[in-house]
Amino acid sequence: MLAIRVGDTLLAEVDDIAKMRHTSRSDIVREAIVRFLEDSEDMQLAETSKRKSISAKSLKDLRKELELDN
To answer: Rounded to 5 degrees, what are φ and ψ at 33?
Structure first.
């Protein structure tokens, strides 16, 4: 269980979405948290990948590595 405090404006927006989707506040907030966690994981993976991929290779070496030269 999780208890959070949100302002009236945000709560009204959550209620509007829940009403449009015919679901509960809890379902909307749960979905938002899951999406946030997935996005955070994706960003972390992207940053890790970017750090690993930043390396200096000459075009000649890269072409050789990719077997683009005969």
So the answer is: -65, -45
